[in-house]
């Protein structure tokens, strides 16, 4: 069996109906960017607090002395290799975080066709692969199946201990087409079957 997620917006259904389209599928989260920013902010806040405590207790700042660092930087030219490398790394990290913030993440769901105008239905990529694996393994003579879906192509590798009997690949392909027809993805997915005989392609 496969599992699917239905995304419905009751409060926004009237607007979606007026526009003549269903609400979009939920996209993934920018977890990596959020975690990086949170860690950097936490480290900076902790360091500032630690330095403030040392200054208030008349102790020497540790592990970094801001006055000593400032004096060192005043004596370091902009062309110094350490300055150039540090600046380049910070720029690359900043650009990477900016791209993550601007570019929308890919949806984790494969959108399915839905007759209701206010409902959007999707299936997880892992569930789609398991559904296609199950369809291929229902064919007599197939002992195992592995599926990968990329750019509208479902590449299914099947294993058979029977060698390569006539019509086996065609039967697997027919089962896959039927399974895809039942799921009815919004964007066409074409199956591509590869037969391995006893673990050998």
Shape: elongated
CATH superfamily of the largest domain: Cation efflux protein, cytoplasmic domain
CATH topology of the largest domain: Alpha-Beta Plaits
Beta-strand content bin: 15-25%
CATH class of the largest domain: Alpha Beta
CATH architecture of the largest domain: 2-Layer Sandwich
Rg from alpha-carbon coordinates: 28 Å
Strand order of the largest sheet: 1-3-2
Number of helices: 6
Q: End-to-end span in angstroms?
A: 28 Å
Number of strands: 6
Low-confidence stretches: 1-20
> Strand count, sense and closure of the main sheet?
3 strands, antiparallel
The assigned structural class equals alpha+beta
H/E topology pattern: EHHHHEEHEEHE
How many structural domains are formed by the residues? Answer: 2
Bin the helical content: 40-55%
* Average pLDDT reading: 76
Q: What do you see in this structure?
A:
- The structure is a single chain.
- With 201 residues, the chain is of the alpha+beta class.
- The chain has 2 domains: 1-27 and 108-201, Alpha-Beta Plaits; 31-102, no CATH class.
- Helices cover 47% and strands 19% of the residues.
- It contains 6 helices and 6 strands; from the N terminus they run E-H-H-H-H-E-E-H-E-E-H-E.
- The chain has helices spanning 13-19, 31-56, 66-75, 81-102, 125-137, 168-183; strands at 4-8, 109-112, 119-124, 144-150, 153-160, 190-197.
- Strand 4 and strand 5 form a beta hairpin.
- The radius of gyration is 28 Å and the shape is elongated.
Keywords:
201 residues; alpha+beta; Alpha-Beta Plaits; 2 domains; three-stranded antiparallel sheet; three-stranded mixed sheet; 6 strands; 47% helix; disordered N terminus
């Amino acid at each position: 069996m496969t599992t699917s997620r239905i995304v419905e917006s009751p409060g926004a259904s009237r607007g979606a109906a007026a526009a003549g389209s269903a609400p979009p599928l939920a996209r993934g989260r920018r977890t990596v960017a959020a975690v990086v920013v949170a860690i950097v902010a936490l480290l900076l806040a902790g360091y500032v607090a630690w330095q403030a405590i040392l200054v208030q207790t008349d102790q020497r700042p540790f592990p970094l002395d801001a006055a000593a660092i400032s004096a060192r930087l005043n004596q370091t030219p902009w062309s110094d290799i350490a300055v150039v490398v540090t600046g380049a790394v910070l720029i690359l990290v900043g650009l990477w975080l900016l791209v993550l913030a601007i570019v929308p993440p890919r949806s984790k769901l494969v959108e399915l066709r839905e007759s209701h105008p206010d409902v959007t239905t999707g299936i997880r990529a892992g569930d789609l692969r398991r559904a296609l694996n199950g369809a291929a393994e229902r064919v007599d003579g197939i002992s195992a199946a592995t599926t990968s879906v990329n750019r509208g192509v479902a590449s299914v590798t099947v294993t058979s201990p029977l060698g390569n009997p006539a019509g086996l690949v065609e039967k697997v392909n027919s089962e896959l087409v039927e399974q895809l027809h039942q799921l009815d993805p919004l964007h066409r997915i074409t199956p591509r079957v590869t037969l391995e005989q006893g673990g050998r392609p």
